Model the fold of this input.
Amino acid sequence: MFTNTKLAKAVKIACAFGAASTIGFTGSALAQESGATEESVEKIQVTGSRLRQAEFASAAPIAVVGQEQFELTATVNTEQLLNTLPQVVPGLDRTSNNPGNGTATVDLRGLGTNRTLVLINGTRAVPTTAGGAVDINSIPTALIKSVEVLTGGASAVYGSDAVAGVVNFILKDDFEGVEVQTGYETTEEGDAEIFNADFTVGGNFADGKGNVVFNLAYTDRSDLFQGDRDFAATALFDDGDGGLEPGGSSGVPATAIFNGGFNSFSGNGGIIFGQDGGVRPFVSSGQVNDFYNYAPVNYIQLPQERHQATALGSYEISDTSELYGRVMFTDSRVPSQLAPTPIFETSTFTLDGSPFITPAAQQIISDGIGLGVDTDGDGIDDEARALVRRRLEEVGPRRSEDAFTSFQFQVGIKGDIGDTPWFYDAYYQTGKVNNSTAQLGNVNRGRFNQALLLATDANGQVILDANGNPSCADTSANGATSGCVPMNIFGEGNISQGAADFLKTAVASTALFEQKIFGATLGGDSSDYFELPGGPIAIGLAYEHRQESFEFLPSQDLAAGTIAGFNGAPGLAGGFTVSGLSIEMKVPILRDVEFADLLELDLAYRSEDYSTAGSVDSYKIAGIWAPTETFRFRAGFNTAVRAPNIGELFAPRGEGFPGASDPCAGNGNLDQTDALRQLCQATGVPSNVVFSAAINPASGQVRTISGGNPDLVQEEAETLTVGIVYDVTEEFTFSIDYFDISIDDAVGAFGGGTNNILATCYTAGAVGGGVGGPFCNAVNRRSDGSIDFVEGAAQNIASIELSGIDLIASYDTEMMGGDVSVNYIGTYTETSDFFPGPGEPAIECAGNFGADCGEPTPEYKHRVTFSYGTDDFTAQLLWRYVGEVNDDDPDTVFTVDKIDGTSYFDLAGTYFINDTYRVTAGIDNLLDEAPPVIGDNDEQANTYPATYDVFGRTYYVSFRASF
Done:
């Protein structure tokens, strides 16, 4: 076995040979130390291969985040550290309130979490959602030895889902001793605190034949609201004149109604109610307007309480065989919170004689939206009907409480086959994730409509009791705990407690993901039979049988979609089984000859049979040529596949609310031409509200109905990487790699998403656009011209093109009495194009952000660490740069259509008090860089909080004791 000195030297040799790039210390990529005997070298596996070799060079770039980085950055939630890598586009994290589901995910290259395979010690982690995403919060941070990130297709080795690459969490499975750690983090404002503590104990038994490691961990993360930060406290709109103005939602606490029939009164088609039941024109622009500011009560950091228990063990049952196992348990509770429920409901309400509406307002409403029945002939219709927009503050906050309980168990046996160079590894793994959700603040739409119609007599007059109070026309409970209570929505604060209680509905759901895997590997080399000039051929055979199932059980209102508040979600049940066979070979053609210090070929092939998608195949051809010991070329071509996941296959129709703009409302991405006006009218927009704020999508979101498609087939991808690795000196090494990924038959929402559907529908000459075209057919409007919903079912019609360059460099030397190192990793994204369908123009996302591209994808970003260490302390300065990005629709006039490049600097250090105790302290966002503040083209909190720091300067300290 290696000593620490030998291990460190071996790591450096491995990096020089292109096995991996290291960010901090790692022991996951070893090469045989020059002069070491064969018996002294442990054979290991590196992510991207199941082969074991003492001297291992990878034909694909692997970034390795070492244990030291976790300690120096006091990482509690792993995604925070991974998101600093330039190959990663942030997925869901601690800021993901809306959108978000309480999980944390990793997204390589921005190709989606469903195309990023997450492994633990080389085997699959249990997914959390029907979409196959893994909540990496379920992996205990204290036990992570390193994280290996392989970008590019790896389906030939690991199977489906590894289209973008693999993130492999390597755990400490040989720990000896006791370690106690506790940490605390807070911002300069004294908020957004995070406290964590963990206890790890491990040791050998049975004369060193066995080892057991046990860990307990606890995390308590406090909430932070948008209202706690000036830049996020007010929802902002673009004012159309190069500035930002207060905005929000047209779903207001006083109730608003937009209709062309009010033009003569309001001038813009909208009215808003006063507390006395009177009306006035709705003010829809300017620094003082009537929009509801929903921002302050939204989380900008989701609170979390997490408990974890993990046990790892191994036992040598003979000189050649070892039993091993792993048990992991996580209980994570993460709430999310939004402003009180806005209801946008086309409702009929009692008008003539209503005690809730003044006579003057009754006349205005009757003239504008009356239903034409005037029983008593007083010139005011008995009832009116319209899309009413009401913020139901009286019902209380809208809050979702998510509890995730995950369990994973693995047991296996591995070892050598006698004295031969062959080895085996077989394991069984099972895991479950249970997600229980309770939602507060939802209301029942049917009871909302019921409470608006008052009891009337034969003359159409409202019947009042002795106290002047009306009653419901339908007094039934309609699923509530008590009978109907009349509701006065006409004015802020006018809904009584009884009416609010009648509206409320209890909503809950349970989701269960279950996974079972049996896997076996047989590997070795040809040394007993023959060798090539470069050495024996290494070969590995693997079999895997995997079964996954998901069940989502919603309560009745949630399943039926009869609620306002959170999105409706029908029940879902589905699953699949898959069996796969793979073969992998490493062919060393030449070694230690002139012009070929190494010439090696890597080959792999995998065939899988899905119960849903049928047979899928993938292969890999890669190679390394090192003309000298210090310089080598590497290249790889992979085909990769992704079978559709359970959600894509089996999800029933459900609703979501993605960000989008309506060209017919005047806030879209097209010029307001006469041709566009005519097309808007032809697709159901009344002439008097075309280009009017009256039909603006509420809160910049458009209701979208989507669902699964059991006829989906697998995605197919091709990935190419070509690069060089150059060990310039003993101190300085760098690598540069070009990558190109093409995905065909990509599964995605029809038309590339809601915003693109709307833009294509109303673009003259666009394929599939115009009246009668599939894009306009997907847009469903209400009678007042506003969008009711957009159809967006999953289909295999999209394609994706991604290309760019990764550059990695490291410099290590001794200077000023210590070790100095500089590690750089940067990514230039040349192309990131999404094609919604055949013949459709590309949605270009390299260097862009916005409604179509989502999270910013800079053309260039990097991560650089400068560190200095002695026997007593280690210090590090981290420089993270996020390049400039532009709004993805240049035709849209946004106040902020470009976000400049942003640099973040983090300073950290560890002081070793003695051999037992050490303390780590640091400052994130050292220069207190503020996030970019944008208007309608934001994600949430007037920015993109997963990409740009929203907390400000943050301090942390961690204390660790090892015995």
The mean pLDDT is 89. The first helix runs from residue 4 to 16. The chain is about 10% helix and 45% strand. The first strand starts at residue 21 and ends at 23.
